[in-house]
Design a protein that fits this description.
Layout (H helix, E strand, L loop, with lengths): L1 H15 L5 H19 L16 E6 L2 E2 L1 H9 L4 H7 L4 E6 L2 E6 L6 E5 L26 H6 L2 E4 L2 E4 L16 E5 L5 H6 L11 E5 L9 H5 L12 H16 L2 H6 L28 H4 L5
Helix pairs in contact: 1-2, 2-3
Keywords: Phosphoprotein
GO cellular component, one term: nucleus
Organism: Loa loa (Eye worm)
Length: 295
């Protein structure tokens, strides 16, 4: 199951790279993969590949919209819905079953094979793609000649086109997904990406971890401006300071009576004033008083 989902996820990511930042794609796909694992694991039977196969048909994009789970997960990491929608062909349906992941795309005449292999491929699981997504060359205009045509029919089985040539997966072109115990994943990260019942998650989940790179989770990523490591302003702390300044100024009758300085005029933006009960301006709260908030 994990091999099939990993291949599916990397296939979808191919269409997103030319519009969406890599870090957002990686976190989105990690979460989407975990949602799919949760959705599939109860009825996943390698010895009966067609069992409950209807439950594993994903309408990623249709003329009426996109997969609701996919949209929700993307939104949780700041991906714009319009960008997500524009990344994919007009319609794209994916069929994920033990040993085979296929796809139907609008205006493409044949079924696209995303991956085909052993139904027990998880015994030899590797984090990087080994199917169609492996052949993505980074050129979004060349997807049809690389990814969509990665598999060609040879005798009675299907193998990746050009399989005789050595082709390594470049890190910037794939989403490597390792397997970890679900107990290692913070419940906050699961809830933040739409999991309603934590008890439903399978014992093993995916984790995106790029070598020689800072590890990001949904929580740590949410603390940054999307796409950078710069921390966001602490708005809650700023509001506490504003409220404290208002309280100190209003309770100081002399400050209210003597105030004659226009609100915020000629003062740095980090100093806040409070409006008096009659609409007058309060006196700026000193740093000495504000220090009590953090003492």
């Amino acid at each position: 199951m994990y091999t099939e989902i990993k291949e599916l996820i990397n296939f979808l990511a191919v269409f997103m790279h030319h519009r969406i930042a890599r870090r957002r794609i990686s976190l989105c796909m990690e979460s989407f993969a975990n949602h799919l694992a949760t959705r599939f694991h109860d009825n996943w039977r390698p010895d009966e590949p067609k069992h409950a196969q209807a439950e594993r048909i994903l309408a990623i994009k249709t003329r009426g919209g996109m997969d609701e789970m996919f949209i929700a997960v993307a939104a949780s990491v700041g991906i714009n819905g319009d960008d997500l929608y524009a990344s994919f062909p007009t319609t794209i349906f994916i069929y994920c079953n033990p040993g085979e992941v296929t796809c139907r795309i609008s205006d493409y005449p044949s079924i696209v094979i995303i991956w085909r292999g052993d139904v027990d491929a998880d015994k030899f699981y590797i984090p990087t793609p080994i199917g169609a997504a492996k052949y993505y060359d980074g050129n979004s205009h060349n997807i049809q000649n690389t990814v969509l045509n990665a598999y060609v029919k040879q005798e009675s089985m299907l193998r990746p086109a050009g399989h005789a040539k050595k082709r390594d997966v470049k890190p910037e072109r794939c989403i490597p997904l390792t397997l970890v115990s679900s107990a290692e994943i913070d419940a906050y990260d699961l809830l933040a990406t739409g999991f309603i019942d934590i008890n439903e998650v399978p014992p093993v989940l995916f984790r995106y971890k790029r070598a020689n790179s800072k590890q990001f989770t949904v929580r740590s990523f949410a603390a940054t401006r999307f796409g950078s490591h710069r921390p966001r302003p602490d708005h809650k702390a700023m509001r506490r300071i504003q409220h404290a300044a208002a309280y100190l100024a209003i309770t100081n009758a002399n400050a209210i009576q003597q105030a004659n300085v226009p609100l915020l005029e000629n003062f740095p933006v980090n100093f806040q004033f409070a409006m008096g009960p009659e609409g007058g301006n309060g006196k700026c709260c000193g740093c000495k008083d504000l220090s009590l908030l953090f003492g």
